[in-house]
Amino acid sequence: MPFHSNFRFRFRFRCSRPLFLILYFLPFVLSLLQLRLTPASAIQFPCKPPQNSYPFCNSSLPISFRARSLISLLTLPEKIQFLCNNFTGIPRLGIPPYQWWSESLHGIATNGPGISFNGTIKSATMFPQVLNTAASFNRSLWFRIASAVAVEARAMYNSGQAGLTFWAPNINIFRDPRWGRGQETPGEDPLLASAYAVEYVKGFQGQDESDSVVIGYADRDRRVLEEDGGTRLMLSACCKHFTAYDLEKWGNYSRYSFNAVVTEQDMADTYQPPFKSCIQHGKASCLMCSYNSINGIPACSRADFLQQARKDWGFSGYITSDCDAVATIYEYQFYAKTAYDAVADALKAGVDINCGTYMLYNTAFAIEKGRLQEEDVDRALQNLVTVLFRLGFFDGDPLKGNFGRLGSQDVCTKEHQGLALEAARQGIVLLKNDKKFLPLNKNDVSSLAIIGPGASTSSQLLGGYSGIPCRAKNYVEGLQKYIKKTSCVHGCLDVACESNSTFDEALLVAEASDYVILVVGLDLTQETEDRDRVTLLLPGKQMELVSMVAAVSKRPLIVVLTGGGPVDVSFAKGDPRIASILWVGYPGEAGGEALAQVVFGDYNPGGRLPMTWYPESFTKIPMNDMNMRANPSRRYPGRTYRFYTEEPVYHFGHGLSYTDYTYKLLSVPNQLSLLRFMKSGAGKRELYQTEAGVEYIATDELLSCEMLSFSVQISVMNMGHMDGSHVVMVYSKASRAVDGAPEKQLVGFSRVHIRAFGATEMSIEVDPCEHLSFANEHGQRILTLGEHILVVGDLEHSLLIAT
Ligand SMILES: *[C@@H]1O[C@H](CO)[C@@H](O)[C@H](O)[C@H]1NC(C)=O
Ligand SMILES: *[C@@H]1O[C@H](CO)[C@@H](O)[C@H](O)[C@H]1NC(C)=O
Ligand SMILES: *[C@@H]1O[C@H](CO)[C@@H](O)[C@H](O)[C@H]1NC(C)=O
Ligand SMILES: *[C@@H]1O[C@H](CO)[C@@H](O)[C@H](O)[C@H]1NC(C)=O
Ligand SMILES: *[C@@H]1O[C@H](CO)[C@@H](O)[C@H](O)[C@H]1NC(C)=O
Ligand SMILES: *[C@@H]1O[C@H](CO)[C@@H](O)[C@H](O)[C@H]1NC(C)=O
Fold this sequence. Notes:
The chain is an alpha/beta fold. 28% of the residues lie in helices and 17% in strands.
């Protein structure tokens, strides 16, 4: 979204502790005072007495009826007002303005005009950026974060500082390492991104039946959510950006005019699965179409995709355009001939609301010109207001309704801040650790130097789509808790590091210190919305800084990498003077503390990379090439661990621990027989052959996949003397090369906690139709017959699929 808040959060590392303590308690004291001072009537809401006698205000009536009733009271110009994110209200019906655009990617974010931090609530918990949270591979953590954010969001709504409709999660596949918004996503793998989407949406919308340990709301609220056939929502989450969106600005390409040329095959098994899961299993109540075109048609005009979401995936909710993505249909994509054609295209395709004003100003004209009917607008309204009804927006005073007791006391709570720390710890990835250099014993460290442009700026902890943190602790503050004698110098003037003018100072500090930690990498000046990178190397002279410090320091270095996008750190990987490398990404407000706990062994790292770290040579591939699959004839190496044919710097799923783990396969089937599940019984009709003679079946020609599902039972042993959390990943690969098949693919994962020298048993469910298949050139998922290999760590198990 091109909206930019002019708010800049930045404060520097402070050396004086008392000041820090005062500042720490200040917001707390202020919020207590203000809670008493703020009148409850500050919130505007519909169905306020005496304007509560309309049938749409009667909460005993079914939502569908109330929605139709409301629409029937509106004139056409009033209806059109609803088609804009900044809805100005219908005073004669007592309906106040409503801002549809609020953001909550990893905490309440200032990016949407629906959010304000200048009311009773001055800050909110900033969890790690999504890519880091994904690195934990921990589903219950994702769920808990989303429900904590939801509690804070509802509290902010109650104090008039947020809306009820939020535009997260961002679940586009992190296809290219240069992408400026890859940090916002759960990574490059469709199964991982799908799992994340489901947990986020369930946690955020407050709709999960199985997990009753949601922080912050009680059984009473849960019962309310079950009314109206379980359609009630605590908040609305939005699966974005639909679809094949993952380029900001690169070379001559801009997201506003980009035409993503995508094969049906890649669409089916890479780009669409996270959206399908987000809707089918997460039951998201919003879908956002993106700026780009897909094969020549702008995403917000793609009736086929938008209708597929409703008809095939069971989507019930509203579809919004990305901000100004209706305008781009005409102005940047040149797909529509006029502005009103763009509006007609979008509404006819199934878009219900425009972030921006294009529908507001052009819909009446489109109807006049016969390009649209009033019924098209009514359909959009029905989808829009139904979501507001599901949210309780028309149920009167929000403070008296469900979730009405949530307020400033529920924001930045100890629990939420503790969860932010827990999430940061779980997401840290140990990439290299020569001779078990880490963890350090704090008693052996007489002095510590922390060097680098990212060492002490708290703003760098948060990443894109952030708000004001409860309290952000930078790396120096975190490490100082362990070692009194620390020195901090930046080495570079900023992350871009264009000058070496302050290197000398850094070298002096490094020479004089017992241990040295370098904090280098990326920040939002290098990668962000509207900005892709052009190189995968460390920015500017950062690499020189690392090498020069390595040359003078007493001991091997610890390198801490910040930022979301992968960095080609081959030089450090191979340098014996660099003992350890940690990726902290954008670890959120508790990042400093989390890093210190990992460095000094109070937490045993278990995070794993949610994406491939490519070498710099990857930048020879044009970023606009959407193909996932390698193509040797044009020296195209493929993308992501599923298809990349060259050697990465660090592979997807890489991540070390302070202990070692081993596996034993306890039970896995050796053979699966499809015969009983084929639609025409014993008929061989559904069997096909690839050109190379490999037999396969289309998975939609099987009667049931559930009954073919099986579990892989695994015993995991912790072979070391530290407790730890370990991510078990099960992959599958075909035993013979089949055209278009991935090199391997993730079929399941689970994070388990294992005591030192202990063992635990776990199982991972495998649905062959979903997990052992891939898409053919027509976008149809196929399951090959013959041998499949299941891979768990070093173990390989052969599974024969026969008829
Ligand atoms: C609300 O609707 C119910 C069910 O139709 C009806 O019994 C009740 O009288 C209505 N309440 C008001 C205030 O109109
Ligand atoms: C929303 O609309 C109102 C009334 O037209 C206007 O005053 C306000 O500036 C708009 N807000 C945004 C964020 O566009
Ligand atoms: C808070 O910020 C919003 C938007 O920037 C503004 O409209 C409003 O007047 C501010 N409120 C206070 C109390 O400053
Ligand atoms: C950008 O456009 C210019 C002029 O048309 C062309 O020379 C150049 O090769 C293009 N660059 C890329 C990366 O496509
Ligand atoms: C900084 O760079 C200049 C030019 O490359 C070089 O001459 C100088 O030695 C460098 N200084 C340090 C401290 O690395
Ligand atoms: C997963 O996250 C939850 C929630 O923070 C935590 O309680 C649990 O210990 C984590 N699991 C593992 C194995 O780390």
